[in-house]
Amino acid sequence: MGDVVVIKFGGGLITNKSQMCTPELEIIDNLVGVVKQCIEDGLRVIVVHGAGSYGHLRAKYWRLNEGLISDGEFSAQDDCKSQKEAVNIVRNDMLTLNKIIVKSFEKHGLTTKSLPPHEWARNTGSNFSGNVKNTFNAESDVMISFGDVVDCDEGEFGILSGDDLVVRICQDISRVSKLVFAIRGVDGILRRPPEVASEDDLIERWSPNVEFSGVHYTDIDVTGGIGLKATRGAEVAEIGIDVFIVNGEYPERLLNACRGIPTIGTQIFSQ
Fold first, then answer.
1. Which of 42, 162, 180, 208 could form a disulfide with 48 if both were Cys (CB 3.0 to 4.6 A apart)?
2. How crowded is residue 99: how many other Cβ atoms within 10 Å of its Cβ?
3. Per residue in 196-241, pLDDT tens?
4. Where on the phi/psi map is residue 159: left (φ > 0), alpha (ψ -120 to 50), or beta?
5. Do 232 and 270 touch, CB atoms closer than 8 A?
6. Alpha helices, DSSP H only, in the chain?
7. In the chain, what is the straight-line distance between the N-terminal and C-terminal CA atoms, in Å?
8. Residue 29: CA atoms inside 13 Å, Cβ hemisphere, count?
9. What is the DSSP letter of 118?
10. What is the CATH classification number for the domain harbouring 228?
């Protein structure tokens, strides 16, 4: 078995984040095409995908990232009368997005095994409870997991980000050589906000002592945006794994990063 590459499909890349439960099917197909090429290269691939408009919008509205709140604080809707109902709705939405991604893999002739975190993980952050080593041991071509609402010791439930998942996968699975974050709208980590940045503002080599301008839409996101990716990426780089952030709208950049070929993007270092 060859080296393992962990690829994070950003939620904002694979969905239209401004429209509830809207997948970007062409982008998903292109990303899966890259995974197929990696497998043909002899690599083993683990995919973690974000939630985008399948998780963040509803999770934010129902405050699932805060854990259990009082009934008086909860904004009920016709299809959801309690926060506990909301947990099940968001979990089902994530399973729906996961099925769309699995369908693309099937179209490319690849077998997959989906691993919903609410079935095997507990608590949030990269130190969550769950046996990653035993969970990610399937014989399928690609194992897939995703950001999810999980049960917690405090607050009853919370959001386990895909960016936290990838850290533990890289730490606990042997022979991981690369972690690649595929995002949307920017070529990597930028010195200035995207709306005013030029090509010269791309930070090609980033470590935690380098300042940057990250975009985190707090009115939509319930996890940490690119700042969390940078922080978690540095944790992974510290154990000797190559970490990259690339614009997933350009599939060849993702493929090059997975192959270790220089490409447009940001490589993350621990120091």
1. 162
2. 10
3. 889 999 999 999 999 886 554 444 444 557 888 999 999 999 999 9
4. beta
5. no
6. 11-14, 25-40, 56-61, 83-107, 117-120, 132-135, 162-172, 225-237, 251-259
7. 31
8. 5
9. H
10. 3.40.1160.10
